[in-house]
Specification:
- By secondary structure, the protein is mostly helical.
- Among the domains are: 3-189, no CATH class; 405-500, no CATH class.
- Helices cover 64% and strands 1% of the residues.
- It has 23 helices and two strands.
- The chain has helices at residues 3-20, 22-35, 39-62, 72-90, 92-96, 107-122, 138-153, 155-162, 170-177, 190-214, 219-230, 248-261, 265-272, 278-281, 283-303, 318-333, 348-360, 373-391, 408-434, 439-450, 471-485, 489-492, 497-500, and strands spanning 400-401, 404-405.
- It has a two-stranded antiparallel sheet with strand order 1-2.
- The longest helix is centred in the last third of the chain and has 27 residues, at 408-434.
- The protein is globular.
- The N and C termini lie close together (7 Å).
- The relative contact order is 0.10.
């Protein structure tokens, strides 16, 4: 493996990241002069931009790779280390701005807060260690949400789209970062495919921003919540998340765009070209719709007129139960993590359904996290085929999706992914429990970070945060976010001794 090529490319990635930091810097300058917001945050982004840019330039111009072509090993290393580097340098504004500064804390403890928040943003997890979000400056609020948007479609995919030098061997990067068991090209050239996907992403983001702005949100809030929705991230500018606005219109717009964000973006691209029927021809999309519809009906039925612990009946009508049930089902299924209600107060059946949906996640090729709808569909089809094979031992029973036979190696990949996901979930839950968390909180924070969801159960529920998690626990959960965003294999392969052999 060419280490020089890896770090040379990481330098280019950091240069791109430095460019994105100019936006929150400009917002900090604007609000500093217009509303007298703290100068420290504006300077934090100025220093962070310079540090990130200088590091990127040093890596780019001092390390000259002998062979510019990316191989499979270089692709995995660039993607995995790229996300580690981006989250690291993305945490600099939090540290310089003193967002998590507190008396008596060591620098390592403060770094655990900053790095956790940064990785949570870029991985579109939306888990936070902040308790007073509305006390942050506009620059910091924008950076939290903007990091979602950058990570949603993929930081390396963005680099593939805008950096010509990554066009050679770019497919290795695209496969290593793109979500789902199968990677689909829209055009023969992978750089062009990346540009088209980002084009669809930007278009949908623009439409949602305008719709939210029309719903009496400020333009700033509309932008930040669009970033969180389209990236299925969940960072909000308000302490009470979407519940703060108490608007049926805003909830409806966000619900619709969460659904779109959880759908394969290749289908959106084809729909924009006139192939609208492609949605309903796609097997995974139909499965995704059925899972969501059944979940909404069950949750809405379960919470209508239920009595909470205070003896109140929060949802007096079917409409109220559908309103809050549908929003929360879409928010959890797509792994967005926005909230309009504290679902931990709901009946056990509704909580069980939402926890199950945390594992499902969005569609392959979407910005959603989780294990992906396609993998569960393939597991169900494969299980059905095995049952039929017991009845008809000599029958040839291939698994089909979209009228095409799924190759055996894809099914093997899915089974391996499922084993790793559940195994890591069990191990990390045990580790978090040994750190002093109760079992429900330990399991809740593990699936919430591995699935890139944000809110979990117990002490990390929808109205809680992760500030109380021990520092070592924060680093472990940060690693879980990375595993979930890069779908395990891209990260775990770096720990294989065979990977480093010549």
């Amino acid at each position: 493996m060419s280490r020089k090529l890896v770090f040379h490319t990481l330098g280019n990635l950091l240069i791109c990241l430095a460019g994105t930091m100019l936006l929150p810097l400009l917002i900090g300058i604007y609000y500093y002069y217009s509303t007298d917001e703290p100068k420290a945050d504006m300077l934090a982004f100025a220093y962070a931009t310079v540090i990130t840019l200088c590091t990127g330039l040093i890596l780019r111009f001092t390390i000259k790779p002998p062979d510019p072509e990316l191989g499979i090993r270089e692709g995995f290393a660039i993607v995995a280390l790229g996300w580690v580097f981006v989250a690291l340098f993305g945490s600099i504004p939090y540290q310089l701005g003193g967002v998590f500064a507190a008396e008596g804390r060591s620098s390592l403890v403060e770094f655990s807060f900053s790095y956790f928040e940064s990785m949570s943003g870029f991985s579109t997890t939306g888990a936070t260690t902040l308790t007073e979000i509305e006390g942050l400056s506009h620059a910091m609020l924008f950076w939290r949400s903007f990091s979602h948007w950058l990570g949603g479609m993929g930081i390396v995919v963005l680099a593939v789209a805008i950096l010509p030098m990554l066009g050679v061997g770019g497919m290795q990067l695209f496969r290593a970062e793109a979500p789902g068991p199968q990677t689909e090209r829209l055009t023969p050239r992978i750089a062009q495919t990346a540009k088209l996907l980002w084009g669809v992403y930007i278009l949908l983001s623009l439409i949602e921003t305008l719709l939210l702005w029309a719903g009496k949100m400020t333009l700033f809030d509309a932008l930040c919540h669009t970033f969180g929705t389209m990236a299925t991230g969940g960072f909000s500018t308000k302490n009470d998340s979407i519940a703060h606005f108490n608007s049926v219109y805003i909830e409806t717009v966000i619900t619709v765009f969460m659904f779109l964000a959880g759908t394969n973006f290749a289908l959106h691209y084809r729909a924009l070209r006139g192939e609208v029927k492609g949605y309903f021809k796609d097997t995974e999309f139909r499965f995704y719709c059925v899972v969501i519809l059944i979940s909404i009906l069950l949750v809405s039925w379960n919470i209508v007129r239920f009595t909470n612990v205070d003896g109140d009946v929060p949802y007096n009508s079917v409409w109220d139960s559908i309103r809050y049930g549908a929003f929360q089902v879409l928010s959890i299924t797509t792994t967005t993590g926005y909230g309009t209600a504290d679902f931990e107060m709901w009946p056990a059946l509704s909580q069980f359904i939402l926890v199950t949906l945390m594992f499902y996640g969005g569609c392959a090729g979407s910005t959603g996290g989780g294990m992906k709808q396609l993998r569960f569909l393939l597991l169900i089809k494969q299980s059905g085929a095995e049952i039929k094979r017991l009845i008809f031992p000599h029958a040839v029973l291939p698994v089909r999706v979209n009228d095409r036979v799924v190759p055996p190696e894809v099914l093997t990949h899915v089974l391996g992914f499922f084993f790793f996901f559940i195994g890591i979930f069990a191990i990390v839950t045990c580790i978090m429990a040994t750190l002093g968390l109760d079992l429900i909180t330990a399991a809740g924070c593990t699936i919430a970070t591995m699935g890139n969801i944000g809110p979990g159960l117990g002490d990390v529920g929808p109205i809680d945060n992760y500030a109380h998690i021990p520092s070592i626990g924060k680093f472990i959960l940060t690693f879980c976010m990375l595993l979930g965003r890069l779908e395990i294999y891209t990260v775990l392969i770096l720990f294989s001794p065979n990977y480093w052999k010549k």
